[in-house]
Design brief:
Keywords: Membrane, Transmembrane, Transmembrane helix. The protein is mostly helical and 240 residues long. It has ten helices and no strands. It has one domain: Up-down Bundle (Rhopdopsin 7-helix transmembrane proteins), CATH 1.20.1070. The chain is globular and about 50 Å long.
Length: 240
């Protein structure tokens, strides 16, 4: 991050390929494609706290997953609010829920792969860094920390999947979800190209939203169908 020049806000960041208005809703498709996050976020949050539907073996993991689904729910409101009138003042409400969700998800992954205490520490630390990153973006007009923060899970999770022994079955869902996440980012970068390739039916940014929805779907299925494998040394030490 420090080796990269400062990346300030630019008016071009708020110019999306598809800015059509339907039924009086500005940037309609970019707005309404956020609402599946609301459904999945609320559903996952309720199932997480119910304690019966998801295979979660500790209270620390419940905190991590609950915050992830809370962040996913907030994405629906924050991103929709931003896309109604994209500008520098509203973009913070688009980025903050996403960073909270990613922080909580990465911490939950660490709890499963490394240890509960380390993961719980990361849960609070990473969410604090997310808040600092958004504050720095707002105060110093610099996107580097936020961009780096969103890139880290896409690299670290696949690497750690092979480095650490899984606590649960169905670990392939982590890799599938990461692949979907990276695909969504490519769609966002190719916003205009996708828009032209689909004969101006849907833009890359709207497709990014829809593709990103598959991410919590895969993780929710993982939480439902997985089972505990064998206790890991890190978990035994944490309990001791």
């Amino acid at each position: 991050m420090f080796a990269t020049p400062k990346i300030p806000h630019s008016p071009k960041h708020h110019l999306f390929a598809d800015m059509r208005n339907f039924l009086g809703v500005p940037n309609t498709l970019n707005v309404i494609t956020n609402y599946p996050f609301l459904v999945l976020g609320v559903l996952g949050f309720v199932l997480c706290l119910s304690g019966n539907s998801f295979v979660i073996s500790s209270r620390a993991e419940v905190w991590g997953w609950a915050l992830y689904y809370a962040g996913t729910t907030s994405v629906a409101f924050g991103s929709s609010y931003y896309h109604l009138k994209p500008d520098d003042n509203r973009v913070i409400w688009d980025k903050l829920p996403i960073m909270i969700a990613y922080s909580s998800l990465f911490a939950s992954f660490i709890m499963e792969r490394v240890g509960e205490m380390i993961g719980l520490t990361c849960l609070f630390t990473l969410n604090l860094v997310a808040l600092v990153g958004v504050a720095c973006e707002r105060a110093f007009n610099d996107l580097r920390l936020c961009m780096m923060f969103q890139l880290i899970p896409g690299i670290a999770i696949p690497a750690m999947t092979f480095m650490f022994t899984p606590k649960y079955t169905h670990s392939r869902y982590w890799l599938c979800a990461t692949g979907v996440y990276l695909l969504a980012k490519f769609e966002s970068v190719a916003d205009n190209k996708v828009y032209r390739a689909t004969w101006y039916l849907i833009s890359g940014h709207s497709l990014e939203h829809l593709c990103s929805v598959i991410f919590p779907v895969l993780l929710t299925l993982m939480l439902i169908f997985r089972s505990i494998k064998t206790p890991r040394l890190g978990d035994v030490k944490d309990r001791l």
